[in-house]
Amino acid sequence: MKPFLKNILIVVVTAAISISGTALAYNIYNENKPFSADSYGSIAADKIKKINSYIKSEYLYDDYNQRAMDEAAAKAYVEALNEPYTHYYSKEEFEAYRSGVEDSYVGIGIVISVDETEGKIIVVSPTEDSPAYHAGLLPGDYILAVDGTKYGGAQMDECVSAIKGGPAGTKVVISIERGGMQKDYTIERQNISSDSVKGEMIGSDIGYVRISAFNTNEAGSKETTYTEFKSEIDKLKDEGMEKLIIDLRDNPGGVLDVVCDIADYLLPKGIITYTETRSGRREEYKSDSNELDIPIVVLINGGSASASEILTGALKDYGRAKVVGETSFGKGIVQTVIPFSDGSGMSITIAKYYTPNGICIHGEGIKPDYEISLPNEYKDGYASSVPRDKDTQLQKALELLNE
């Protein structure tokens, strides 16, 4: 796996990205090129060139910042698409964005998306044991402001930059809306370094593995969520595992290559997922003939998104697992990120992804085979914090494996 050669699956405050190539940050077309209905990009470039000419020759003041104007023009141009995952980043913003989904980073540990209906930034899931997790942020919370600056759905990446805008030990105030009520949370940014896979035996022959995210390796390390998962499975096999529960509840996703490595380990030969662009170009991700041939149950909920849905959808379509819990988040589009020569960059939505049976779950989510809710007193919290004897979803998984 090459660093930063990934498909991004969800906007994360520690965002994983994929870089598809390099490009110039700004293109000026020939000034004499005529306007036409099918060349809006050249019209915009021509207008900017003329505006700059007037500013240089006629503007009363000379203390303006040309670079800031260029950045603002590029950002406004891309943001006019009004699509929550397509954005332009200044050099500073892009450096923050490129921090990657790694096993260590500085932040508060939170994954966000956009509620397109409400036009608000929504918490998909705080990372387990992160500052955001311990502060009490919950899936479904709306982020209204950061340090007093308001952000809507169209400013998601500016919101991300503000949340991550300081070194470990500094504090950030997150203004949250929950159930119509507003509350401020003061959270300290920390160096977050944690394993994304935890496992144990439940009973004599059932292994339980919780995957909290699908992380790539940090610089200088070969460890990924896949290597953690494989190591945990090997350990559980040695302890007598003959059946497996994979807990993907509140797992917001991560890196496509990593989740496909895990799916390959579990599935027989065939397609894991595939993507399609608007032109119909299709890219397939496949597994080999080796598989973990034991009974499997997967646990999901509304915080299970993107890469979690890829793994769940593939296991479900192949009939390799029963799915228990609640309908997943429903993120079925893919972004790529393009770096520009001046250090700035752009994320752009390029494709939809599909389960092996050709289902795109964007906006729909994956429906479990067994729709089971947690008890009311735990429905607004984290699945990982529910006592085992009260965890109705886990108990259903055990029941199915013990049949």
SS field, number of helical segments: 9
Question: What fraction of residues sit in β-strands?
Answer: 25-35%
Quaternary organisation of the protein chains:
single chain
Please tell me the overall pLDDT: 84
Largest sheet: 6 strands, antiparallel
Tell me the series of helices and strands, N- to C-terminal: HHEHEEEHEEHEEEEEHEHEEEHEEEEH
First CA to last CA: what distance? 40 Å
Cα Rg: 23 Å
Number of strands: 19
Q: What percent of the residues sit in helical stretches (DSSP H or I)?
A: 10-25%
Per the principal axes of the C-alpha atoms, what is the gross shape? globular
Low-confidence stretches: 1-38
Secondary structure class reads alpha+beta
How are the secondary structure elements laid out?
Blueprint: H1 40-58, H2 66-79, E1 87-89, H3 91-97, E2 104-107, E3 110-115, E4 120-126, H4 131-135, E5 142-146, E6 149-150, H5 156-163, E7 171-178, E8 181-188, E9 190-193, E10 197-202, E11 206-211, H6 225-238, E12 243-247, H7 256-266, E13 270-276, E14 282-287, E15 296-300, H8 307-317, E16 322-325, E17 333-339, E18 345-354, E19 370-371, H9 392-401
Parallel strand pairs: 11-12, 12-15, 15-16, 16-19
Antiparallel strand pairs: 1-18, 2-9, 3-4, 4-5, 5-6, 5-7, 7-8, 10-11, 13-14, 13-18, 17-18
